[in-house]
Structures are given as C-alpha cells and as structure tokens.
Amino acid sequence: MGQMTIQAAVTMGQLQKKMDVIANNMANVDTVGYKNRQADFASLLFQQIDNLSDPQNAEGRLTPDGIRIGSGAALAQTNMNLSQGAIKDTGRNLDVALLDKNNFFAINVTENGNTETRYTRDGAFYLNPLNDGQVMLTTKNGNPVVGINGPLVFADGFEAINITENGQIAITRNGDQQIEGQLAVAEAVRPRLLEASGENTFKLPNLAGLNYNADEIVETTDLENIRVKSGALESSNVDTAKQMTDLLETQRAYQMNGRSISMADQMMGLVNQLR
Question: For residue 142, what is the DSSP state?
C-alpha cells in the first residue's frame, strides 16, 4: 500500500470521528445546558525528504528544504465550548439557570453502589418525596442536588418553594418564608480536564496520571459570587448553522481523501501496465 493511500485512509477514519462529534452536537441542540464540542486535529508522524542538492535553491526560501510526507491526521482532542447559552424564562419555580459560564450545579450520582459528585448546567429540578415525610431536591433523573451541607432535603407540607438569585432555597410555611437551604455551585477552574459522564453531566478525571488536585480543577464558588436566575433555563449553545457548515466541510474532506485513494490506485495501475 502506497504512502498516499495510507495517509488518506488514516485521515478518513479520523474525519468520521469528527462527524460523530458534529452529530452529537446536532442531537443535543435542544438539551438544557448542553455545551458544544469541537474536534481538534493534529498531524501524525511525517518524514522529511531532502531533494534539493543545489545550495543555491535554499537562498530566499522561507520554508524547510525538501518535502514533508505525513501519515495523515488524528483527532487530537475534543474541546468543550463553555460560552453562555440563551436564557429562556419558563415561569417554573424549580427551574434555575446559572449566569456565569464556568459554573456548574453539583449533584450526587450513584452507579454500581458507588456515589460520586458530578456537575451539570441543567437546572431543571424536581421534588422527590422520601419515606419519612420529607422531600428531596433532585434532577429529572432522580439524582440528589447537592447543597453546601449535602443533599437538599426539606420537611414536607410547605406552601411554596423558590430559589433566590444567589441560590438560596426559600420555603413558605404558614405564610412565613424562611431560608432552608443553599445550592452548592462549583466553578470549573480547568474545564478542559472535566470528563463527560453521560446524561449531560461531567466528572473529575482520574487524577493518578495528572499533576493536579481536585481543588485545582473544580472549586466551590463563594456564596456571595453565586449568580442564578430562577424561573428560567439555559439553552444549548450549539450554533446549528455552524454545525451544518462544519458537517459539509468534513464531508468534502472525506470525499477528497477517498478520491485520492482512487487516483493512487489508478496511477499504480498505469505504472504496472508500462512495458
């Protein structure tokens, strides 16, 4: 197999992964708090072929001498765009939107008997009744929402519940409103290190191979710096027009590499027919 064929085949496989990223963005265009992903490429190993034997050819040359023949491109990383999505009013008391782009709600997720803290921008919360006459603030999947003192649990029988602009939980009982909880909001100091964990959530990476502590990746936001909007949700920040443009560009690049394989095969056929 020729170098041209190898290069094109490798690149086509990576372009397919980019199309998967674009498809995932398009599928989540209406997901609350979803953050757009962007695929970044990097060149693979290349060879330097020095074919300029005359020193005079190097005079005035701005690029390296010779020809660089690469082995294609690889999907280096998928970055998350944390730009703020549009805030849409819902009028629902338990809907809350974060107003700072690097902030996340903290939730507890239990999988295989293990409970860990994960992070999300989805502020559509619900009240989940417990067995002891209490209710818990949860996500739509039933995962507990974390407050500054743990999961937010309240005695049932209240008349109204509201979330203030600084994340406090105000509950009205017998006409008297009291603060009975505080949302814990985390700030992603290094958001690119967060790992997507499904269901529109993120988690801390495995710190064994990193030179960071958990506090250096995500830290708790000071209560006076919390800014939220109650009765509203943050829309996805996916730009549909840009995604369609990226999809067309990726498809054209895929077709071009596929055509280069066909042309390389034709050229080898012509060479084999020479007498």
Answer: S
Count the alpha carbons within 13 Å of 191 in the hemisphere toward its beta carbon: 19
Tokens standing for 60? Answer: 């005035």
Angle at CA 123, nearest 5°, toward 121 and 124? 135
State the helix-helix crossing angle for 3-27 and 240-273, rounded to 10 degrees: 160
Question: What residues contact 98, with CB distance under 8 A and at least 6 apart?
Answer: 33, 104, 105, 121, 123, 185, 227, 228, 234
C-alpha span between 261 and 5 (Å, rounded): 5
What CA–CA distance (Å, rounded) separates 115 from 183? Answer: 19
pLDDT tens-place string over residues 166-210: 999 999 998 899 999 999 999 988 888 888 888 889 988 887 767
Q: Shortest CA distance to 33 belongs to which of 93, 80, 91, 92?
A: 80
* 219, 185 Cβ separation under 8 angstroms: no
Q: What values do phi and psi take at 20, rounded to 5?
A: -65, -40
